[in-house]
Write a structure and sequence with these properties.
Length: 135
């Protein structure tokens, strides 16, 4: 059983980190300070979710850290498919957070998302094609 104080702390802190990530991604990640802030937010989410038994959320955050680690080294840009994949990760992490906060339920990391994040991290990602034009 998870302590109520720990769960309350996780609820507040995780919401703040997810909001920070969304704000930074929406603004466009153009400098090292933004990359570092994103990395720290995902790192904090990974640790906090792990403390609550959220292996699924922890796995998603870890893959995001991999991408941001490359960006910190100057080997990747957080734009295009990388940014889109991180946004998809945040959407998933919000659902996982709700499971941990509401019912202490670990929602597994979707295999397709982990594969997408992994492809971005290893440089094999291909951007999704734009939607077909209306006839």
């Amino acid at each position: 059983m998870i302590d109520d104080d720990l769960r309350d702390h996780f609820a507040a802190e995780s919401e703040e980190h997810l909001d920070t990530i969304e704000t930074l991604l929406a603004a466009g990640v153009a400098d090292r300070a933004a990359i570092d802030s994103l990395f720290r937010a995902f790192h904090s989410l990974k640790g906090m979710s792990g403390a609550l038994g959220g292996a699924g959320m922890m796995a998603v955050a870890h893959r995001c850290e991999d991408i941001l680690g490359l960006a910190r080294q100057g080997r990747a840009a957080i734009a295009g498919e990388a940014a889109d994949a991180l946004v998809a990760a945040v959407d998933t992490m919000r659902r996982q957070r709700a499971g941990l906060v509401g019912e202490n339920c670990d929602i597994p990391a979707p295999a397709a998302l982990l594969a997408r994040l992994g492809a971005v991290a290893d440089g094999t990602a291909v951007a999704a094609p734009p939607p077909a034009a209306a006839p």
